[in-house]
Amino acid sequence: MLAPVNVSLESLNIMTLAPMLIPIIGALLILIIDISKANLDKTLYVMISLLFLLLDLGTIVDSAGIFTASGIVMGVFDMMLIDGLAILAQFIIVGASLLFIPLALTHSRFHEFSYPEFFALFLFMISGFQFMVATDNLILIFVGLETASLALYTLIAMHNRDKSFEAAVKYFTMGALAAGFFSFGSMVFYALTGSVEINQIAAVLAANNYADIGYVLIGTAFLLGSIGFKVSLVPFHTWTPDVYEGSSAALAGYMSIVPKIAAFIIAMRIFEFLIHSGVVWLEVILYVGVVVTMTASNMWALVQSDVKRMLAYSSISHAGFVMAAILIGTTQANSALFLYWILFSFTNLGAFSMLWISRQKHLPQHQRTDHSYDKFAGMIKTSPIASVIMALFMLSLAGLPPFALFWGKLYMISSAVTGGYTVLALIMALNSAIAAYYYLKLIVYMFMKEPVVGNDGHVYVINATLALKSIIGFAAVGTIFAIIAVNPLLEVITTFVYNSGY
Description:
By secondary structure, this protein is mainly α.
């Protein structure tokens, strides 16, 4: 008879679960309140969501202090991993969520925000993404991936437009395929090494001198397909423009930021040790994937007549740009990834929110889509402040100095040169120049064209509530003051990344 095993709570280190449990508790509280008393004002659910997100942010700050003092922390039978990558990624996830949630205080016509289920699902989704980044256990990554994805499918469908249902179905179908790929890839690595923890998988493969390289490549191909779907790498990008178009503009902006940072962390944990171990096949595939993703998506963005689809293709290009950091695999490149994505979070969420306030319930006859370029023609005359803020976001996304994303691109290209990828650095710079065209095209429409007059003789004027103006203003201020904060921010990021061994 086996002797019982005593496990102390101290050895489990339950506090490593705190950042994930807080949004789950918040979601359950919202559902309990709704069951107890239905039809309460959505402001209550917004405030509850913000409160629990702030508590979540506080626990992440506490985890950062523990990591700074004692290094990498493991917990819950070594399934939870609190390192620099997990902390930085959770800051981006929760920070972007804090920017997104107050948008629910805007126009009442966006009826999905009147449902308490929306906020509960949103908090469940955040918890799922946090589980993904705060572990190196493939099973727990899969659980987090599915938790976040299933909630996100429903959030898209709740927009309740024909294109929203279509977008949710497309995302669900492609997501199911990606989940299958991830499962098969994880199964192959478990069969090879007897472990589902990435660090142990790396150790066993290195000890065996990659004897079963054929099976390693099969497992890697499955995982690359799954992660490629999440970050919209070509050719796994096909869902992105349609899903973004069917989602509300604000949720599309959120989707362009948070799910991708979670996928980048998984890619960093899995692929970088393989590249450093000399798996040339993976390096070649990633190189081609990064170049094709940046270039092809830029070409597609050039020919779009709808601003929302243009931003969707541009977000694919940005993801390809950032994925280069996984290929380069140096501390400088990984630090540049986080810097780039933090700056991108402010700018892209602000740009999509600007589209959201300009949404029309009924399109005029001269307007083919909800966000056509013609709709923004002459906006400097009809909505001067909105046009200046939108121009700020476009200039930053284009990477023009001295605006925020210029510094992210500069550090990323610099890391490519330092890492010996000079040709890749030239391709990245060329793609940045191409991208400037379609961003500047919108500025030309806003500042140099006359407003389009509708059949009723009126021109469209953007009007936003105080809550929405505040959020967009905060994003704009963040975009501007990032110029001052780049160096200290990069120092903090580099410290966290370096101490995590990446």
